[in-house]
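---------- Forwarded message ----------

FYI, see the Oxysterol-binding protein record below. Original note from H. follows.
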Amino acid sequence: SDHMENICGYLMKYTNLVTGWQYRYFVLNNDAGLLEYFVNEQSRFLKPRGTLQLAGAVISPSDEDSHTFTVNAASGEQYKLRATDAKERQHWVSRLQICTQHHTEAIGKNNPPLKSRSFSLASQGSANSPGVQRRPSQNAVSFFNVGHHRLPTGKRVPIMQPDHLVDVREMMSQAEGQQRDLIRSIECLPASGHLTSLDQDLLMLKATSMATMNCLNDCFHILQLQHASQQKGSLPAGTTISWLEPKISLANHFKNGAAQNFPAEINKPASVREEQSIAEPCQLTREPEEINPDEELEDICDDKEDDLGAVEEQRSVILHLLSQLKLGMDLTRVVLPTFILEKRSLLEMYADFMSHPDLFVAITNGSNPEERMIRFVEYYLTSFHEGRKGAIAKKPYNPIIGETFHCSWRMPKSNVATDAGTNSSAHSPSEQVTLPKDPEGRAEPDYYTVKFVAEQVSHHPPVSGFYAECVERNMCVNAHVWTKSKFLGMSIGVTMVGEGVLHLLEHGEEYTFSLPCAYARSILTVPWVELGGKVNINCAKTGYSASINFHTKPFYGGKLHRVTGEVKQNMTNTVVCRVQGEWNSVLEFTYSNGETKYVDLTKLSVTRKRVRPLEKQGPFESRRLWQHVTESLRDGDIDKATEHKRALEERQRNEERLRAETETPWCTKYFLKDGDGWVYHKPLWKTVSAAQTQQTDSN
């Protein structure tokens, strides 16, 4: 309470699509637990334009930018607000949270809350909208005893009587019957004509009504548990309250409400039975396998994801899926429909970020630390464009635990940029490390080779490790990524938690970096990918760092895919390079000497990766593992692709269950746990260190 203070000031408030953002004067009334706003400061002594009761509210800083935050009241109303800067946002958020906690606890003393609530009360609508009319006894606010005035001191709120719950259950039963009648009426409409069962508005109505009933059932369940706790005095030890599971299995996909019946086990194709019967991965050889790059062939697959047909045809499935999800819901364990999948694994997508290996190898050719940092930033920003396959946002396959992916790239040495007057042999003898010579004495190739390996090292949470190296240039990169996906309404957000480290062994430098968040926008129309968030690149040895901002598109105006950044020397705080542009189009680099360089990503040459043929791949290598799903998607057979995908997922669940029952830990193949991260089992820095030791001993 020492930190509770009445604050006021101007904030921008998002009103609607027509009006947009408007400046309004806000007042936080700590005594009453209210957030009020007025047209301007002069009108603050008049009746407020709007009021939110903060008891039971949720105050959430937005991840869109550093200025925006939302206030979600228990009544369902929401204010989306924007401060002038991050500092002002933090001031408002902290004061609002303190006030909210104080008044929520005050109500809790009169109406003991549940011990655990893992839900959030947030809505786009308002209880005061013209289309919503309720009797006072039906108002959801009254159930939670949250009003627009402070509770009288010393008065205890009456406990809800059992007959009240019976009345609510009866009303809900009537609503469920009406909802079923509505669904039945829509599905009985003809498939063609003026008004069809596939009408987009009717499909949206089906999805919305289903989501509403699920939400009401969850709320009723919570009220029942709350009433039981009031009768008994407390909840049983260990009890937790959370949202109920979706009433309809997310694994079942629907076409206009009709479930698809898959063939029985006896009728399953041999490929599906094979997928289900592959031996337990830990029983297969888990010894690291040395991949010979000479066995790899240039990849001829070119699966661009520009086909909208499947998305358009399966609109009803998407609407049904959305009806089962809640804002902020973790999608890690949600089975998504097959038709939204890319024809590649997430592990292969990480490899596709290396499609400009010439820029990667050129990093170490920089003549000084400043140039090497700038070259790394250039490579980093050019990697995301080719990592996407086409303009349509689709999801790669979720890798199976133990799944691996191997590939390599070859590029002529003449294609790799060198610094003026600097080449690969121009370094001092002290910088050079002699690796073991080819035992067959073959001539040195005129190309560089970059080798890549990725492995799914964990299933829950889903963590991938990947590693790439160029032995000839004494450089390698090691990274681990935990993908956390959440449902955000009409978009899906994916946070890439983890860290990568680039090692330039020739210079003794390490560059740590992170990855931006990714968003699949407009998932009901034409889904597209947007990157967002701030990433940092640091080199502790040289003191150079880079700060890069991936900007999400604002509500009005602004460009898509915009990125800005700067490279600076931390010791002097001097900016040596600035970059701006679009991460999938043209980037502009401006150097401290006034020179400007433009990089057109659409014209950069792409080096095709080299992959072993399927027949030479192991059973848990990505392309062989997912080959039947990929072939079915190419053929447009969604049902068959779903069947193969389900077989793989079911096998993974069975294996996980068996390991839990036998208390058998999972053993990785290529990556080892190192603190909170994962490191390749035989990284180049260990090989070089061993070679240096051997060289010293021989001298």
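H. also flagged this: The chain is about 30% helix and 25% strand.
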